[in-house]
Design brief:
Blueprint (H helix, E strand, L loop, with lengths): L7 H19 L2 H27 L2 H27 L5 H31 L4
C-alpha cells in the first residue's frame, strides 16, 4: 500500500488547500472568515478523508471516499459562489476548477474500484 502522501489525489488535494489560502487572502475582509475559512476547512477535511481512505479497506474505505466527495461538492459550490459574486479572480477560479476536477475524477475512480472490490468479495 502506498503512503497517502505519495498518491496523485493527495498531491492535487494539497494544491487545492494551497489555493484555498490564496482564495481566502484575495477575498474582501467581510468574507474571509465566513466563506474563505469554510473553503479552507473543507480542503483540510478532504485531505483527511483521503488519508483515511488510503488506510482503510472495504466499507470503511467507501465511507471515507463518500465523505471526500461530499466535501468536494461543498467546496465546489462555495468556490463557484465566490467566483459568481466576484470575490475571487477568474484565474483562481480556473485553477480551482482544474484541481477540483482532478480530485473528483480520481476519487470517482477510487470509489468505482472499491465498489468492484466489495461486490467481488465473497459473503462472510
Amino acid at each position: 500500500m502506498a503512503l497517502y502522501s505519495d498518491l496523485p489525489i493527495y498531491k492535487h488535494g494539497c494544491d487545492l488547500l494551497s489555493l484555498s489560502v490564496d482564495v481566502q487572502t484575495q477575498m474582501p475582509r467581510m468574507f474571509k472568515r465566513s466563506l474563505g475559512e469554510k473553503i479552507h476547512d473543507l480542503c483540510v477535511e478532504m485531505l483527511e478523508a483521503m488519508a483515511m481512505a488510503n488506510a482503510t479497506r472495504g466499507e470503511a474505505r467507501m465511507e471515507q471516499i463518500e465523505k471526500l466527495l461530499k466535501y468536494l461538492r461543498a467546496a465546489t459550490a462555495m468556490l463557484r459562489i465566490s467566483h459568481d459574486k466576484r470575490l475571487i479572480s477568474p484565474k483562481l477560479w480556473a485553477q480551482s476548477v482544474e484541481l477540483l476536477d482532478a480530485v473528483g475524477s480520481q476519487a470517482g475512480g477510487w470509489r468505482k474500484h472499491t465498489l468492484g472490490t466489495l461486490s467481488a468479495a465473497p459473503a462472510a
